[in-house]
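Late entry, written up from scratch paper. The run itself happened at the end of the previous shift, but nothing got recorded in the book at the time, so transcribing now.
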Amino acid sequence: MAMGLNASVRRRGRSRRRAAIAEINVTPLVDVMLVLLIIFMVTAPLLTSGVPIELPDSRANPLDQERDQVTISIDHDGQVFIDNDRVPAGGLAARLATLHHGGKPPLVTLRADRGLDYGRVMAVMGELNHAGFNSVSLVTSSVTGGSSEAP
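Output as recorded:
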């Protein structure tokens, strides 16, 4: 009988102590990371450019994005924007001078509305050339399918 009492005391002593949990529940972490991934996937294309422009169509292949890239946009009213900042009339040359830091100039992408006068686009390209930006990429909307003949 004494042996039975001793065994029950030992069992009660073990049940009072709790073992440390050695596992981490990662399910909430995975849920949060998936939601953040979806948010970034949806918002990243919207952050590329904020100036609303109706781009002309082209069948050209897309270019890769670069780290040192400056986007110059010309909207349907002829207003010039560097990235998302509006450039006052006559101030383009001064703003372009601040972008050129002495070394290799950054890649310039030019976005112009399809309804603009050709002369306005060429005036901005002339300012870019005068400021030392000799490599300019023209941005267009891609066209899939259709005829392969040029208009």
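Residues 27-43 form the longest helix (17 residues).
(Scratch paper discarded after transcription.)
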